[in-house]
Amino acid sequence: KEELLSPKKNQVTTYGMGYSQQRYSDLKQIDRKNIKNLSPTWAYSMENLSGEQSQPLVYDGVLYVTNAKWTMAVDVETGRQLWRTQEDFDPAALRVVCCGVSNKGAAIYDGKVFRMTIDAHIKALDLKTGKVLWKKKFAEWQDGFSGIAAPLIANGVLISGTSGAEFGVRGFLDGWDPQTGQHLWRKYTTPAPGEAGSETWPQGSDAYKRGGATPWITGSYDPETDLTYWGTGNGGAWNPIDRPGDNLYIASVIAVRPKTGEIAWHYQFTPGDPFDFDAVNENILADIKVNGKLRKVLIHADKNAFLYVLDRVTGELLAANEFAKQNWAKGIDLKTGRPVPTDLLDRIKAGEEVEFWPGPRGGKNWVPMAFNPKTGLVYLNAANQPRIFKFSKLDEYKVGQRYQGVQTSVPPQNPNEPNGFYMALDPLTAKPKWKIPLMDYMQWGGMLVTDGGILFSGKQTGEFVAFDAENGKKLWEFQTGSGINAPAITYEHKGRQYVTVLSGRGGGAPNTPTELREKIPLSGMMWTFSLPKK
Ligand SMILES: O=C(O)c1cc(C(=O)O)c2c(n1)C(=O)C(=O)c1cc(C(=O)O)[nH]c1-2
Ligand SMILES: [Ca+2]
């Protein structure tokens, strides 16, 4: 079992390519010199048009991959399907996904592959046959819950989150026995009256029950601290009129014990979050020098446009710097750990219509960044897009219905203003080593960095691209036929390095602007690349 958990060159059994979620590989068969020869080895049809956002896994020469409709096992060498198992959800459940019908991935452990489903279930499939070994309902999808994230196995416990903050659900994490599917614990991410943190909610109100804070992207795990690190979603409703206060643990990182669900520490990125600043973006674990001392840290580029470094043992804030354009905070005060707000929030609260940056898509959305421990840099694609925001009347909460209370629109884009940037940053200062403007569209593909000096990412317009990680120069690209909005992986099989990525327009951004819908056909393919055999 332990061998399943430590990252190996020929195995990718976790979301993020290892518990630290660095999306870094020390493979270097594919390098700056030979990348021009990188070629498709095969392509596999996902038989799906609703969008591909999943990160594949690899075990013993087999790829395990998910979308909303299927779980599939595919042979690495030939691209032939070994098995696939269909999801049998009620199509009506698609009503309660806020931002596209997809799935972000699975987890492998002890001969099983674990995944969540759109209709709020979690299940275990047999690695060899795809047979469903157990399946549990974690909530009623009719109430606004959905399961899209890859689960996490930590210290023998299977941990899963939920989506649904746009529907005013109350977020939580669940712990399960991976063998039997027995439910072990539930930790709500908004506290009930009397619990720690409840003082940050209006007293005598049940606003916490609709408070959001959904952990909808997989946490990372440090076996030494025995803590998992999960980001939590936005506050519910977006319009905070019914929930004055900081509202723990919305828009936060929580350090959670895998055996019990206990919260060891927390840090809130956006107190009271009125902007849909989900804080679910990946928490990368690394050991880096801070003021000359090696520290165990957690690196997080938030939707709110600040790049944070925290001590992952204690939760102490070490650095917080702007990485994308924003106008809601003057900065983050390192002493108090709190943002120093501009007048923007007061103005919207007073009923004014405002243009706010970075908009609810964030300075960066869930598509993951990568960290290279050798260069100490993070590689990410940032968005550079504002939104017009005006709080409207907050309608009475109705279970399973959208609960937002905000009118938003996208202002016309200045053609000289980039839609976003590809960048390599120092996590402690957010100073770019290099920065490349994205003039056509913001990007929604994850990052993967290798010891061969290559940075891989995909574009909404379908190109799978390799950059020189040193300077961001494009070295190679391949048109996959539909938009890429998923993270790639790399691994070794029988001495050969492969790179695999999913292509298929879908998810939160790629269906807007409408222009992209017209230009980019739907598809669902898994592409695998390698260097030609000599
Ligand atoms: O608060 C939530 O529960 C929640 C869930 C999801 C989701 O399930 O994909 C997204 C969001 N929020 C969200 O705010 C967002 O911008 C977003 C983009 C995407 C995507 O798949 O591209 N999902 C989501
Ligand atoms: Ca959200």
From TrEMBL:
Ranges for domain Pyrrolo-quinoline quinone repeat: 14-318, 427-499
GO MF annotations, alphabetized: calcium ion binding; oxidoreductase activity, acting on CH-OH group of donors
InterPro entries assigned to the protein according to its UniProt record, in alphabetical order: PQQ_b-propeller_rpt (IPR018391), PQQ_MeOH/EtOH_DH (IPR017512), PQQ_rpt_dom (IPR002372), Quinoprotein_ADH-like_sf (IPR011047)
Gene3D superfamilies per record: Quinoprotein alcohol dehydrogenase-like superfamily
Coiled-coil spans in chain: none
SMART domains: PQQ
Active site: D276 (proton acceptor)
Protein's recorded name: Alcohol dehydrogenase (Cytochrome c)
Lineage, top ranks: Bacteria, Pseudomonadati, Pseudomonadota, Betaproteobacteria, Burkholderiales
